[in-house]
Amino acid sequence: MNRSVAQGGPGPPRGGQDTVADGAARRRSAIVAGVLLAVVAFGIYSATQVERYYDHFVWQAAAFLEGHAAIRYPVPSAAGQAGNAFFQDVLPVSASVDGVPRGLIPFPPLPALILVPFVAVWGLTTDDQRIFTLIAAVDVAACWWMLGRLRIPGVVRLLTTIFFAFGTVFWYTAQLATTWYQAHIVAVGLALLALGLAIDADPAAANDEPIPDDDHGADGADGAAGPASRRLSLAIDPRQFVIGLLFGLACTARLTVIFAAPLFMLVGAGGSWWRRSWSAGLGAAIPVASLLAFNMASTGQVFHPAYDHLYQLEARGYPGLGYEPDWSVEDPRYLPQNLRIMFLSIPEILPDRLRDTLGTIDQPLCTRSDDRRGLFDIDCPLALPRDIGMSVLLTSPAFLLLLPALRRYGRSRLVSGAALAVLLIVVVNLMHFSQGWVQFGYRFMNDALPFVLPLVALGFASLIGAARRSAWTRPLGLVLVVVSIAVNAWGVVWGRLLGW
Question: Among 497, 420, 496, which Cα is nearest to 454's?
């Protein structure tokens, strides 16, 4: 088995083996590069950050410190302190607790648990946006590290990391870093760590190794023969268990990430599909079961009832969003309208009025005598993003780089597993009643983003290889990344101008 397929950058020198000093120097350089990327990302995310008072997880952390699952709610705003009476994503409890009215928020509590030590020190004044923006910058370093497990050129590793940081909706996510985006930031980082460890433990997965179709090696001995090799051993691979644990934690921040499970059946430590699945599944079961137990203890139900409360509130309160209160929270009938948003929604070009989806804003534009339009002129813009969402191919055209990698579907376990993960997550999200409004781009793409990135990197590397034969393809990858960054920079600026 050629373990070099998981390593980034150029192959070994002509002598056939890297010296210890060369390997150590490359690792140090990679670490320095990862730190620099995180520092740059934090600087840009912070420079473009806007202050918003959607801090559900701060209130949740405060409730945990008080020994309660329900937050204090509603709390009116007071001098120097924003309250939470304007929160809509809260299910009021039937009776007050200790004389204090309280409510339940539906979001999985992992981001709140991260905030507990900070809230213990700074209370409700905790700057959760800054904390999660910092975590988002660490996610950029995690992306750099994960891509380093692949055998791709260094320039592809760098450009794919930059694309993730600034050419996808993750930039908007990181600089806004309010409640919903905080969950994305945590899930993305944990999923990147799980995926990187899985590739590192199973480097042949990135090669054209056939997908296994039997239980050979179920005891961890690859290629074992005889009936004993077909027994489904309950032995746990500790590396795959840790991978599953990280994956399960990602699921407890964003529930739909759980549909990436087939990837960890195909890729990781253990030597066979069964042992990978068993070990990762057991690790993932711990945080997922803990979340379900939390729901039972706090609400008496396995699935949080505040989700349906929120659904009915938005469906009946905002008819302009096209939600149907008689449908389920997850319903295939939402697929057509959500597919249009994900792939076909475009900006308003040369708008004559400033509007929002709900129709609460409707004012004429370009009423000046010169009628001269500007890229960022809020009085007379060239184009405006749509708050309901916009096409992922328009906002991040470098996603198209994954297409060459898909030719290895069915031959590469990594490509096959990642493609399945992306497909399942996207389909489940498309059946969800909401698509993340108000937003720039399509924020639910964050759920699939960690599993798209290896496909983009492998496709990018394949394109560079093809460029040796077709000169016109040589700049294509770079152009797509640059355009993606430009579009997301435009969206971040307009999000600020429009008060999103």
Answer: 420
Q: What pLDDT was estimated at residue 370?
A: 78
Is the domain of 178 the same as that of 80? no
Residues sharing a CB contact under 8 Å with residue 29, sequence separation 6 or more, in sequence order:
none
Residue of 446, 452, 451, 425 lying closest to 195 (CA atoms):
451
Q: Specify the pLDDT at position 120.
A: 98
> For the chain, how far is it from start to end, CA to CA, in angstroms?
51
Both 408 and 491 in a single domain? yes
56 Cβ neighbours under 8 A, 6+ residues apart: 71, 84, 87, 89, 90, 105, 107, 179
The one-letter code for the residue type at 485 is I
Does any domain span residue 156? Answer: yes
Domain boundary pick from 104, 123, 142: 123
Whether 272 and 380 share a structural domain: no
Cβ neighbours of residue 142 under 8 Å, at least 6 residues apart? 189, 192, 193, 196
d(CA 104, CA 483): 42
Which residues span the domain enclosing 61?
56-123
Same domain, 34 and 91: no
Output the pLDDT for position 467. 58
Looking at the structure, tell me whether residues 215 and 116 fall in a common domain. Answer: no
Q: Are residues 186 and 290 in the same domain?
A: yes
Final residue in a domain of this structure, among 73, 103, 123: 123
**Does residue 12 sit within a domain?**
no
> Would you call 51 helix, strand, or coil by DSSP?
coil
- What are the 10-residue block averages of pLDDT along the chain, 500 residues in total? 39 53 89 98 96 92 96 86 88 78 94 98 96 98 97 96 98 97 98 98 74 47 43 88 98 97 96 95 98 94 90 88 92 96 96 87 86 92 96 98 96 96 98 93 97 97 74 82 98 94
Same domain, 240 and 296: yes
Which residue do the tokens 């520092």 mark? 39
**What is d(CA 432, CA 415) in angstroms, rounded to the nearest whole number?**
26
Whether 185 and 62 map to the same domain: the answer is no
* Tally of structural domains, the chain: 3
**Integer Cα distance of 438 and 389 in angstroms:** 8
Residue 159 lies in a domain: yes
The percent helix, strand, coil of the chain (3-state, each to 5) is 60, 5, 35
The 3-class secondary structure across 297-361, one letter per residue, is HHHCCCCCCHHHHHHHHHHHHCHHHCCCCCCCCECHHHHHHHHHHHHHCCCEECCCEEECCCCCC
Instruction: Say which residues have a Cβ less than 8 Å from residue 157's Cβ, sequence separation at least 6.
Output: 8, 9, 144, 147, 148, 150, 457
Tally of CA atoms within 13 A in the half-sphere of 326 that contains its CB: 0
pTM score above 0.85: yes
Asked whether residue 248 is domain-assigned, the answer is yes
Phi and psi at residue 88, to the nearest 5°: -100, -20
At residue 15, the 3 state secondary structure works out as: coil
